[in-house]
Amino acid sequence: MQLCERKSFVLSVMMMSFMVLSSVAGIAGNITVSWDANTEGDLAGYNIYIGENPGNYTGVVDLGNLTQFTWNNLEPGKTYYFAVTAYDVARNESDFSQEVNATLNDSNNPPELVAISVLGETQLDISFSEPLQKSSAEDVSNYSISNGVSVLGAVLDQNATVVHLVTSPHERGRSYTLSISNIEDLSGARIAAGSSKNYTMPDGGSDTTPPELNNVTVVDLTHIEVTFNEKVNGSSAERESNYEIDNGVQILKARLSDNKTVVNITTTAHQNGQTHVLKVSNVTDLAGNKIASNSSINYNVNVNERDETPPELVSVVVNGATQIDVNFSEPVVKSSAENKSNYSVNSGVQVVGAILGNSGSTVHLITSAHDKNQNYTLTVNNIKDRAENPNTIASNAAISYDFSGSDDFADNRNVGITPQTFALFQNYPNPFNPETEIRFYLDQQRGVELSVYNPLGQLVKTLLSDRLPSGFHTLIWDGTNNDDIQVPSGVYIYSLEVKREAEKGGLLVDVSIERRVKKMTLIR
Fold first, then answer.
1. Which CATH number fits domain 113-205: 3.40.50.460, 2.60.40.1220, 1.20.1730.10, 3.40.50.970?
2. Of the candidate ranges 111-115, 330-334, 419-423, 513-517, the one whose mean pLDDT is the lowest
3. Interatomic CA distance for residues 354 and 439, integer angstroms
4. How far is residue 176's CA from residue 183's CA, in Å, rounded to a whole number?
5. DSSP string for residues in 116-135
6. Strands (E) located in 75-211
7. Where do runs of H (alpha helix) occur along 32-177?
8. If we measure between CA atoms, which residue out of 174, 99, 165 comes closest to residue 128?
9. Widest CA span of the chain, in angstroms?
10. Is 236 helix (H, G, I), strand (E, B) or coil?
11. Which CATH number fits domain 213-296: 3.10.20.310, 3.20.10.10, 2.60.40.1220, 3.40.50.450?
């Protein structure tokens, strides 16, 4: 349902559906009201109103950002009327939503199978007449489908009246029967024995129309919502490479919403007041029809510059057995990003250092050694963005990554290098012109040499040859050789050599030299 459109100082709220869920327990009943969340950046919360007569509300509850509320101890047999308003951060309240009503039954009626929605060859949504008990709704043995189709999984929606079924593939154009047993409502009443309903899997050949772009909604400077004119396939809709934005805005993450027509996209920062073009390719509908080649849509960025969106954890890039790069959706505060206690890795991997890259959104983590061919989970807390009133990342934000331990990573344990020795980071920017920044980490005071070579292994320039204290260090290469002459465009190699020493007879003696190398590209 929809509340009023924005007028001066009045919040606009879109509610795609507004459901009233009711159940009765004994002589006292409850009614749960739920609705779709608004997506506007200035939303602060909702008020839910109740009354026993249309348009006459005698009770109200401020829910904050909740989108569901249960009224308890209501009188069975009586009809109740409900409406919702939304308010923004300045406490401006919208008009009332469309009114809905519900009547509590006088007895414990069992749940009924209401409808079956076919979402794809392996997806069904099953709607019931009232909220269900979760364990019975998610027990796959309570569902059976004719013609050899198996139920592989069942998930109860948050509204508690819809169950999402995952099945083995159906045959297109064929009719099926879904039979249900042992499903219980919240009061323990069980669905009638023999409950079943017929449905038909659509013939894919009947849908030959590809999906189209309907609209782009700008949520904030790093989030947009892309709406299609029909439901789209999840794997194609969530492939970041299927989207492209002009003016250097990069796609970081794409997630399909539950209604399957809206894709929520996280990007690098847009420039406020600018017009952009979004291009979409290879997105398909549920029948497999692919969106037209070079489909595009223009949109304007004009948002309240007050940033209320927290940073998001986007990806982890493995750079070695003791180095991972953590990418965030936006630039973050240096003090929070470089606090190693804000990061944790499972399976005993320790975070021993953190350094924020020049982009402001990438953090280089130095860790104890990972084990080969294992999956790890990085958990992040307390990272703040650079808003005037900084927003903090969601509690226990987590992301998984694999460490293969391949030779490409020069497994540190094979060459005697650990985070207790040193680490060399990728230069930034790369490619570069006219100069680039090179960073490295030392566990303690050591003799080091940092040099640049051409692809033939010939020395171009020695940037550093000195004894340095522990910590992070930064040097700049300006694209010149040892004679301060500009070198041509091309690929160059930078090498960091670190001396390991031991005390013998009261003197420090070099016992080994360890080396790390990386490539960089100079463009003139």
1. 2.60.40.1220
2. 419-423
3. 12
4. 20
5. EEEEETTEEEEEESS-B-HH
6. 79-88, 100-103, 113-120, 123-128, 143-145, 151-156, 162-167, 175-180, 195-200
7. 134-137
8. 165
9. 96
10. helix
11. 2.60.40.1220
Round to whole Å and give the CA distance between 5 and 361.
36
Burial 102-112 (b: 16+ CB within 10 A, else e): bebeeeeebbe
The helix (run of H) or strand (run of E) holding residue 333 is: none
Q: Is the pLDDT of residue 7 over 90?
A: no
- The yes-or-no answer to whether 213-296 and 313-404 have a common fold is yes
Tokens of 386: 């650079």
Contacts (Cβ under 8 Å, ≥6 apart) of 255: 238, 263, 264, 265
Binning pLDDT at 50, 70 and 90, where does residue 405 land?
low
Residue of 312, 234, 305 whose CA lies nearest to 266: 312
Q: What is the CATH number of domain 18-103?
A: 2.60.40.10
The CATH class that applies to domain 422-522 reads: mainly beta
Among 301, 245, 250, which Cα is nearest to 274's?
Answer: 301
> Which residues lie closer than 8 Å to 306 by C-beta, 6 or more apart?
41, 387, 388, 389
Residue for token pair 């990085």 = 378
Provide CB contacts within 8 A for 491, sequence distance 6+: 455, 519, 520, 521, 522
Do you find a cis peptide bond into 431, omega within 30 degrees of 0? Answer: yes
Q: Which two tokens stand for residue 319?
A: 């750079």
Dihedral-angle region of residue 416 (phi above 0 means left; psi in -120 to 50 means alpha; beta otherwise): left
Options 3.40.50.300, 2.60.40.1220, 2.60.120.10, 3.30.565.10; CATH for 313-404 is: 2.60.40.1220
Task: List, for residues 412-438, the tens digit of each pLDDT value.
Answer: 333 333 444 677 888 888 788 888 889
Q: What is the pLDDT of residue 450?
A: 93
DSSP H helical ranges for 253-340 = 334-337
For the chain, domain boundaries: 18-103, 113-205, 213-296, 313-404, 422-522
What does R_g of the chain's alpha carbons equal in angstroms? 30
pTM: 0.37
Question: 26: helix, coil or strand?
Answer: coil
